[in-house]
Amino acid sequence: MADSNNIYKDIIKPVCVLLAICVIIPLALSLTNKVTADKIAELEEKNSRETMANLIEADEFTENELEDGGEGFTYYIAVKDGETVGFIFKTAEKGYGGDVSVMTAVNPDGTVKSVAILDVSNETPGLGQNAAKESFYSQYAGKKSGISLLKNGADTAKNEVNAVTGATITSTAVNKAVNTALEQFESVKSNEEVTEGEK
After folding, report:
1. What is the CA radius of gyration of the chain?
2. Cα gap 194→68, rounded to integer Å
3. CA 139 to CA 144: how far, in whole Å?
4. Count of CB atoms within 10 A of residue 191's CB?
5. 3-11: long-range pairs with CB below 8 Å, 24+
6. Structural domain boundaries of the chain?
């Protein structure tokens, strides 16, 4: 009898406790995720809409998708007083410490209206994270596709921007993200022309 009590205390009881922990914790995490996932998505959407409103003045932003060369992407059409006043693209590129996310508003003529840096939190504080400063990202306004990045001495008339000092990798990621947005804009415009031609 003593042996069976020892077996219960030494083996069966700890195994049952561990098994219960292994079942309860994942269930609790799953439940928490279900409860918070919708709220997180709702908050992200709200923040995204606020950023879009800061980039371009519009009455509404309609979400669209386009398949281009096997790869799809989402974009937004900014409409004011019934007219298309711009397009918005979210793009990301690999930076120094992780992905750098950017939102780019593009005018109907294909030039950059404005840029917002959505996330550079994985970049080096005091260096790469300076890409989120207006002094850097405001350089993109008015630029067209094929923007060049220079360490210094950029010529605005030559479609060039200056990199953040000491953060060439992060700056390159932002530059690629903006150029990708401009390429996506060209795909959207080409698709619109084809669609209109088919009518």
Report:
1. 25
2. 13
3. 12
4. 14
5. none
6. 1-55, 56-198
